[in-house]
Amino acid sequence: MIAISPSSAQPKWSTMSFASTLYLCPVLDLLLANIPKQLQPEIRLGLQEALVNAAKHGNKLDPSKTVVVQFSVTKEGYSWVISDQGSGFATEQVNRCNCDNDCDSHCDSHSNSHSLPDLPPEESESGRGLCILHQIFDQVHWNRQGTQLRLSKQIKKGKRQPLFN
């Protein structure tokens, strides 16, 4: 079951919660409802990576644990705070990720095709998701416990092209 409620503490924010699952289509559809169509494919990919990490790695797909997503859509941009009930992880490395250097060989975000190449199996499970998050979102930050991820995408005056068409 998916539950959505407006936040009384932050009027521009809403909160969604759902049991840990990898069936994320309805969740993603709801989170993308107010996002412009041209940005939906890349934001969907980024949010899917983040939600899979929360449900699979954080909550270990335990259906008794929930993933909570706080989200906001404003004129300035889009923000998400994704929390899980897992034991967390050491966030020092991921919060200091130098994705522009580390991921150029994996994420071809500067070419006209904007495609993500297939990776060898040993690399696909570690690092690709982090790279994708840093390529799609303007801000990617985990809390110290490693149980909460903040993502934001700002709307810029000189609208940039989406990563993929």
From TrEMBL:
InterPro entries cross-referenced by the UniProt entry: Anti-sigma-factor_SerPK, Anti-sigma_regulat_PmgA_prd, HATPase_C_sf, HATPase_dom
Q: Which UniProt keywords apply?
A: Kinase, Serine/threonine-protein kinase, Transferase
Named from the GO MF annotations, one term is:
protein serine/threonine kinase activity
Q: Which residues form the Histidine kinase/HSP90-like ATPase domain?
A: 35-153
Q: Which domain of life is it from?
A: Bacteria
What the entry lists under CDD domains is as follows:
HATPase_RsbW-like
Checking SUPFAM superfamilies in the record gives: ATPase domain of HSP90 chaperone/DNA topoisomerase II/histidine kinase
Which Pfam families does the record associate with it?
A: HATPase_c_2 (PF13581)
PANTHER family (UniProt xref) = ANTI-SIGMA-F FACTOR RSBW (PTHR35526:SF3), ANTI-SIGMA-F FACTOR RSBW-RELATED (PTHR35526)
Name of the protein in question: Putative anti-sigma regulatory factor, serine/threonine protein kinase
Native species of this protein? Gloeothece verrucosa (strain PCC 7822) (Cyanothece sp. (strain PCC 7822))
